[in-house]
Amino acid sequence: MATNLPILDKITFEVVEDAEAKIEQALDCDVLHSFGELRFGIVPLFRGVVEELASRPNKRAALGVCLTTPGGQAEVVEKLVELIRHHYDTVYFIVPNMAMSAGTIFCMSGDKIYMDYSSSLGPIDPQVPDRDGKYLVPALGYLDKVAELVQKSKDNELSPAEYVLFEKQDLAMLRFYEQARDLSKTLLKQWLTKFKFKDWAAHRTHNIGAPVTQDQKVQRAEEIAMLLSDNTHWHSHGRFIGMQTLKDVVRLEIDDFGEDKELQEAVRRYSDGLSEYLNRLGVPFYVYSRHTAN
After folding, report:
1. How far apart are CA 112 and CA 169, in angstroms?
2. How far, CA to CA in Å, does 259 sit from each of 6, 26, 116, 264?
3. Which pTM value belongs to this model?
4. Each residue of 184-217: pLDDT tens digit?
5. What domains appear along the chain, each with residue ranges and CATH number?
6. Is residue 103 within 8 Å of residue 129, measured between CB atoms?
7. In sequence order, which residues have a C-beta less than 8 Å from that of residue 153 and are 6 or more positions away?
8. What is the DSSP letter of 91?
9. Which long-range contacts (CB under 8 A, 24 or more apart) does 50-53 make?
């Protein structure tokens, strides 16, 4: 921790560092906090923190990523997963508040996902840069609207105003949106099968005790990817999907850190302390660990 911080900031980081140590001990993993949008600018910062953590003499076998994000780009998530998995064979995702859209895809690359009743993931509507590259926009909203206009055209129900909107669509951008959608689904299926389902050896709900085949793992991952990317089910790109819905509807295994009250308190102090500090400074994204010089 920097020694030249104002007194209130020093107190904040003392609380944050103590909380991080408690999470490390409880989950037996190295810990970092990733805050903000998952855009290309975060990659060098993320790489530096992970490399410093992994080069420590007392590095643990697992990494816990405490993730707070409104989303971002699937391509960035793919790179971050490559960085992490180069150094750690076991990865946990801890979601204190929310990990939306691309953040949800990121979580699916973990061996475990930790949430409590107040945590949320989101639909995996990929976010892509707008024409100016300044803002991220949800791709599926555009594709759904174009599909609606195409169907109206087939049914001879397209109004003159809708025809003008349809005519102005950029086909290259629409193809870019389709590729982003397909990449999001592909990554989610690949990572669920390879990491989240790697120890799933026997059925636990239907046909209990029967061995789980690789094809069944792929099929289950496909079902989760399709459901999480189904706009007609969730109705909103910003829909908060809570832990119980993920368990009951998506049928995804989640570890509830709320069952351990000391761990829950540590996770919240860690995340809330850092998030409030970064929001106050107006920092758009950051990666933190008390073990690194960031």
Report:
1. 41
2. 36, 12, 8, 8
3. 0.86
4. 889 999 999 999 999 888 877 777 778 889 999 9
5. 7-288 (3.90.226.10)
6. no
7. 166
8. E
9. 50/83, 50/84, 50/87, 51/87, 52/289, 52/291, 52/292, 52/293, 52/294, 53/87, 53/289, 53/291, 53/292
